Inverse folding.
């Protein structure tokens, strides 16, 4: 058997061995295969890398191919890369070549790319500049606009002078769209080079006079970014902005309204009653403010609202019906900050409506309502139910609603609110339940009638199963008891009983403090609690330990017979505690309460120190501003209402970068006449005071027939130019005085000529008659499709009429002639040529400046260009040649095509050689275009590219 | 204003970025992720987050966070409103606004964003203008484009940009001229335990789909305009006419748009279309709870209540629910504890009910709050406020359009506390 066994065994071992060996072999054979596979894997990895690289190569090839579709495909992929945040900058040279592509989509994608990477590849980006310069003179306003957009978005400091010129040109463009783009470009240039501020302000000033609704929002935005403190620029445009407001696009409305809010606070006197503070909470003053206002102020002088102030309020009111929540909020804050107390209620309904909107909108609106509801309960009280919390609301929405409900609570509605709160306390969202308990506490302190009810309700909550709820209740009860330390010993006893079950340290500490503070009311329980605490002292949290020491000290002073030993024990424990605070406190307390020879006079007062009656804490909203109190230095939390409503700063309760303070009302209103605008047209007979009555009339139009109003506005003019330079209101008022003299003389002239006609008719006809000579002088063709000819005498800089693309939009055109109106709206026609010369002179000045800057750019050749060629019809030829000498070479081909340029112009031959192949193609197109002749945008004096750059032909590379 | 935009999906990946000024590193989103982590639910992320150098304003829609980066003071609602407008535009273009749709159309998205903002300031947000600039991608158009080589990008300035009616493009032509108006009202209500109404209000909108040739000038009048308490209009509505005559007079945009949204004055008693009988109990000690829910029609003015969907967030302690619906189907998600019951149509003869038991976590104490029940429903051919359109007239064009009006009532935020 044994033998058999052993042989079997050996056999088995042998078999095992062979098996193992074969397995090893197998492994051996396997291994190289594996490694092969591995190799393959690594290979493929590297090949992937290669293909990735090759992918970019691939894109490069595609971009350089001749096929438009391939290029487009490549650009789409490049944009995909940009969108994912991947770096595609190495393709820059390949991409930038396509900037002059005919394919508009390709071009746009190239623009996207350029704007993204130009900052990183400044030298290469310069390659594209000439294309944009050319496009700036394209007859298609859309192309001009987008060229300016991209040109100004390229953040390359070296082209600042070019941008500056382009902006100036575009600001005088006939197309409001291009002017709008130039307003945007102002901000871009400013952020690129703040040194240009002064020049940019000039452009802003010019654009502010623009009467196109399209431009208004953008230019005010530029104003806010570049020179928000130059309030003097607004004076002359104030009424116009107010009147245009309803027709401005919604985003512009927001910007204009917030700017006007700031403006109004510096220019008008307070409509709020003297003495009675704006932040009054009492309903009486709130409801009677209207009548009392008059009574109070009669002693001094009755408050009469500035008509301009009224105009603003009246014109913004319809915007409360806007679908854009930002606009509604903006109007609401305007009313809040500017309207007389009794008018603020008009915004309530609209604000409540916004609560139906998206969660994020709700959040912001609720924040603002919370601030408002503290100061004016009456505003939102009728809408209380709109603030009821739904279980589906997000937590921050819930807390805000709770906040508002608490603010709205008063004697009448408190029972409803408390019933509602009862539901919230049971909420599954425990943080919210805790917030509700705090809210109940606030209601209880604010409304004395319900304090007892609230207190008993809170005591019931002490038996709640949830710890946070119990803890919060304890804390709130503690505060409540402090406010009414009468016979609440029952509650304290109840809490002492609960003490063992409560684990949240804050709640434990609160109970200990309560027992210590009112130990005379619970003389039997207090020592017992101390005894229990002595047992668990070492295991407690710091805050509980401190309160234990506190309790011990107080008991020692009142009941030393029973607690002396306990106190000493606790003080000993505290002496060796790990925490500094507790050791310090223990030492302090010991010295204070235990009489020994070292402790001085203080010992006598220990009782009075420790058991002094303490003021009750104030339970109030975090949105509440403590009136007249400076915020506690150690709290960051300050009152939110110091910020303008609706702003980011208000939302965050910290001052955001760029926040503009809302100034206090001036005690005496600055001169109102600065807002008067000189009117050239005869003023209606009934309106000797120029602007005001007129405004009153026009203000209540919603979709007003702008034509006539704009006409009226067209008058604001000559004075404003000067007034802008004089920053002080005093000097400008002097000026305006002289203006009004002028104006009145004019008035009499005109009215006499137009006597007997109906007012509006007379205005029209008179302006017609006035514009007649101008038209003869300046415009060669009558504008097409104009409903009212006088509404559209065209720019003095131009000699044609609006571009054809614009034909359908007559109103936009009519509004486009604003700045020129203002420039040459001198009353007597003979004066215009002089003016114009002045204009022209001012232009060369700018150019000389730019020339200096350009030399920094290493420009090689300057060649004379026909700046303002259209003007040549007006300017004497000698002046023209002077100008040509001053100005820079013009790469554009406008002159070739422009019919208005004198054929003898010396620069015709100079233009084309510098232009690349694509450029010449463009020229061809332009020449073919018959409309080109009619179109007459002022061709900007263009900067040629540095020669070395130009030598990089786009095609050959 | 708006500096950059980041699109972040539910799993926290930034899948699209766009910068309007100089590039802001995407690491700025880390602050957002931090806030996201702190928030228990996706909706709890605060809309405004301050960071040391920037401010992040975000909007959550379709499970995508649209995070705008701004650098200086700007009204937060301005940014929020704009972001929502962006989402609406995407939805308008691609049908849905999902991560996949955005990724598929990344070029169009980029082109759109480029047109919508210039230097961070809104340039063109009107759908009619945008559609002229960038044509929405359709399969047919993509095919045509690949063959003919034409593009989706318009070459001319959209006519709307300059006109007095920026919302309407010119040269609109249809063979069938139609104008449809949907009056949709939503009831927001909170019903308390005993079935009495705590608060109820009606909000309504009039959505229009207008496909009319040329420049039609429409007027829409109501039988009972007094019902409308607070209104907000599409910019096309002439406010003066409304003030004076309570008539909606407007030149409509082309296509779909929201003409009006309104709030019905709160004096009117709101009819609550359904009632809920509920009995949800948890017994102390046992790990079972009872769930019993019955729905019934209340004030429906003879119309049937359709598409009823009941949902409820059950307490955290509930492990599972074993229920038996008399009609429709129910689902219970054990992770989110969300119970949904798709009821369908309510048959007044045989009231739908959902009965059964819930199993609770063993040893867990009884939840102290009963769940709230959210109800969605639809009632066709009725506006619950009783609002009625009187007539629709068209001026300015010769042809005779086909006009249609539809009424519908829905439940908005309709909650029943139990």
């Amino acid at each position: 058997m044994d033998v058999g066994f052993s042989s079997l065994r050996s056999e088995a071992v042998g078999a095992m061995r062979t098996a193992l060996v074969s397995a090893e072999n197998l492994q051996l054979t396997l291994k190289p295969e594996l490694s092969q596979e591995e190799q393959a894997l690594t290979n493929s990895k590297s090949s992937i890398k290669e293909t990735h690289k090759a992918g970019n190569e691939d894109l490069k090839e595609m971009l350089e191919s001749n096929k438009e579709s391939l290029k487009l495909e490549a650009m789409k992929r490049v944009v995909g890369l940009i969108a994912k945040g991947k770096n595609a900058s190495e393709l820059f040279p390949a991409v930038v070549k396509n900037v002059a592509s005919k394919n508009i989509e390709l071009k746009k994608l190239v623009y996207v790319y350029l704007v993204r990477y130009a900052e990183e590849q400044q030298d290469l980006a310069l390659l594209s500049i000439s294309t944009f310069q050319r496009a700036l003179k394209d007859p298609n306003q859309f192309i001009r606009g987008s060229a300016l957009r991209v040109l100004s978005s390229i953040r390359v400091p070296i082209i600042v002078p070019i941008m500056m010129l382009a902006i100036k040109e575009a600001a005088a463009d006939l197309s409001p769209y291009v002017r709008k783009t130039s307003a945007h470009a102002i901000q871009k240039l400013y952020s690129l080079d703040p040194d240009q501020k002064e020049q940019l302000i000039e452009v802003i000033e010019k654009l502010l006079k623009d009467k196109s609704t399209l431009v208004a929002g953008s230019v005010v935005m530029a104003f806010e970014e570049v020179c928000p403190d130059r309030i003097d620029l607004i004076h002359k445009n104030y009424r116009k902005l107010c009147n245009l407001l309803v027709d401005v696009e919604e985003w512009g409305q927001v910007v204009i309204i917030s700017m006007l809010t700031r403006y109004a606070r510096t220019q008008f006197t307070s409509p709020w009653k003297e003495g009675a503070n704006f932040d009054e909470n009492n309903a009486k003053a709130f409801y009677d403010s209207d009548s009392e206002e008059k009574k109070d102020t009669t002693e001094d002088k009755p408050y009469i609202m500035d008509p301009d102030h009224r105009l603003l309020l009246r014109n913004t009111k319809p915007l409360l019906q806007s679908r854009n929540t930002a606009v509604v909020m903006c109007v609401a804050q305007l009313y809040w900050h500017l309207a007389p107390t009794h008018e603020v209620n008009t915004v309530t309904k609209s604000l409540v409506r916004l609560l139906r909107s998206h969660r994020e909108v709700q959040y912001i609106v609720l924040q603002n309502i919370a601030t408002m509801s503290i100061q004016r309960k009456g505003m939102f009280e009728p809408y209380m139910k709109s603030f009821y919390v739904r279980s589906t609301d997000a937590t921050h929405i819930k807390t805000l609603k709770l906040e508002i409900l608490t603010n709205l609570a008063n004697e009448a509605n408190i029972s409803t609110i408390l019933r509602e709160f009862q539901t919230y306390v049971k909420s599954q969202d425990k943080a919210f339940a805790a917030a509700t308990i705090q809210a109940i506490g606030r209601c209880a302190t604010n409304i004395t009638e319900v304090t007892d009810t609230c207190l008993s309700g809170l005591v019931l909550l002490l038996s709640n199963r949830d710890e946070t709820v119990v803890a919060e209740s304890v804390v709130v009860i503690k505060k409540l008891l402090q406010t009414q330390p009468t016979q609440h010993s029952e509650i304290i006893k109840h809490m002492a009983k609960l003490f063992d079950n409560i684990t949240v340290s804050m709640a434990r500490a609160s109970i200990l403090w309560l027992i210590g503070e009112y130990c005379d009311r619970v003389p039997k329980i207090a020592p017992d609690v101390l005894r229990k605490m002595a047992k668990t002292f070492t295991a407690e949290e710091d805050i509980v330990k401190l309160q234990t020491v506190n309790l011990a000290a107080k008991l020692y002073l009142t009941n030393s017979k029973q607690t002396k030993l306990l106190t000493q024990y606790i003080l000993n424990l505290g002496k060796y505690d790990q925490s500094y605070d507790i050791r310090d406190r223990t030492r302090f307390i010991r010295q204070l309460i235990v009489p020994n020879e070292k402790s001085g006079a203080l010992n006598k007062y220990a009782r009075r120190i420790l058991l002094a009656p303490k003021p009750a804490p104030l339970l109030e909203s975090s949105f509440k501003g403590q009136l007249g109190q400076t915020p506690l230095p150690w709290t960051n939390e300050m009152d939110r209402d110091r910020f303008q409503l609706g702003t980011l700063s208000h939302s965050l309760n910290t001052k955001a970068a760029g926040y503009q303070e809302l100034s206090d009302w001036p005690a005496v209103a600055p001169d109102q006449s600065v807002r008067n605008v000189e009117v050239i047209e005869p003023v209606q007979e009934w309106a000797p005071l120029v602007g005001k009555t007129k405004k009153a009339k026009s203000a209540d139009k919603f979709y007003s027939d702008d034509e006539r109003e704009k006409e009226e506005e067209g008058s604001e003019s000559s004075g404003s130019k000067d007034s802008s330079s004089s920053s002080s209101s005093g000097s400008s008022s002097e000026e305006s005085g002289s203006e009004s003299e002028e104006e009145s003389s004019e008035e009499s002239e005109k009215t006499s000529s137009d006597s007997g006609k109906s007012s509006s008719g007379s205005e029209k006809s008179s302006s017609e008659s006035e514009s007649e000579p101008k038209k003869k002088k300046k415009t060669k063709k009558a504008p097409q499709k104009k409903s009212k000819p006088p509404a559209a005498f065209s720019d003095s800089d131009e000699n044609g009429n609006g571009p054809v693309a614009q034909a359908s939009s007559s109103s936009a055109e009519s509004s486009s002639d604003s700045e020129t109106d203002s420039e040459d709206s001198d009353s007597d026609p003979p004066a215009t040529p002089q003016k114009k010369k002045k204009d022209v002179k001012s232009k060369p000045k700018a150019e000389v400046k730019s020339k200096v800057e350009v030399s920094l750019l290493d420009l090689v050749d300057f060649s004379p260009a026909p700046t303002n060629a259209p003007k040549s019809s007006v300017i004497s030829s000698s002046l023209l040649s002077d100008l040509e000498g001053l100005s820079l070479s013009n790469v554009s081909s406008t002159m070739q095509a422009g019919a208005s340029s004198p054929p003898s112009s010396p620069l015709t031959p100079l233009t084309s050689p510098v232009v690349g192949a694509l450029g010449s193609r463009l020229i061809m197109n332009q020449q073919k275009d018959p409309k080109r002749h009619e179109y007459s945008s002022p061709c900007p004096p263009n900067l040629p590219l540095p020669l070395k750059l130009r030598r990089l032909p786009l095609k050959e590379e | 204003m708006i500096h950059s935009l980041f699109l972040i999906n539910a799993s926290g990946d930034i899948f699209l970025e766009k910068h309007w000024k100089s590039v802001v590193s995407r690491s700025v989103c880390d602050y957002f992720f931090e806030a996201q982590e702190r928030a228990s639910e996706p909706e709890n992320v605060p809309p405004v987050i301050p960071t040391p150098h920037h401010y992040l304003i975000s909007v959550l829609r379709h499970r995508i966070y649209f995070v705008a980066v701004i650098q200086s003071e700007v009204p937060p609602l301005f940014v929020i409103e704009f972001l929502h407008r962006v989402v609406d535009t995407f939805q308008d273009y691609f049908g849905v606004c999902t991560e996949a749709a955005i990724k598929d159309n990344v070029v169009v998205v980029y082109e759109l964003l480029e047109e919508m903002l210039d230097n961070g300031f809104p340039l063109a947000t009107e759908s009619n203008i945008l559609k002229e600039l960038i044509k929405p991608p359709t399969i047919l158009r993509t095919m045509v484009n690949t063959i003919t080589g034409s593009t989706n990008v318009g070459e001319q300035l959209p006519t709307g940009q300059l006109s007095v009616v920026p919302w309407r493009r010119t040269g609109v032509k249809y063979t069938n001229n139609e104008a449809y108006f949907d009056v949709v009202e939503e009831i927001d209500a909170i019903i308390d335990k005993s079935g009495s109404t705590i608060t109820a209000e009606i909000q309504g909108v009039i959505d229009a789909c207008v496909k009319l040739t040329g420049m039609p000038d429409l007027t829409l009048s109501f039988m009972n305009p007094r019902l409308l308490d607070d209104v907000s209009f599409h910019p096309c509505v002439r406010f003066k006419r409304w003030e004076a005559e309570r008539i909606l007079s407007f030149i409509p945009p082309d296509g779909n748009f929201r003409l009006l949204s309104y709030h019905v004055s709160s004096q009117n008693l709101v009819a609550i279309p359904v009632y809920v009988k509920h009995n949800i109990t948890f017994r102390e000690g046992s790990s079972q709870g009872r769930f019993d829910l019955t729905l019934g029609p209340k004030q429906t003015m003879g119309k049937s209540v359709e598409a009823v969907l009941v949902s409820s967030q059950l307490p955290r302690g509930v492990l599972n629910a074993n229920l038996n619906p008399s009609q429709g189907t129910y689902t219970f998600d054990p992770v989110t504890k969300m119970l949904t019951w798709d009821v369908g149509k309510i048959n007044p003869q045989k009231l739908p009910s959902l009965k059964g038991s819930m199993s609770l976590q063993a040893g867990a104490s009884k939840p102290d709050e009963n769940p709230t029940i959210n109800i969605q429903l639809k009632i066709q051919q009725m506006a619950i406020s009783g609002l009625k359109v009187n007539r629709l007239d068209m001026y300015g064009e010769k042809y005779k359009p086909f006009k249609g009006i539809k009424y519908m009532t829905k439940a908005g935020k309709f909650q029943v506390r139990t």
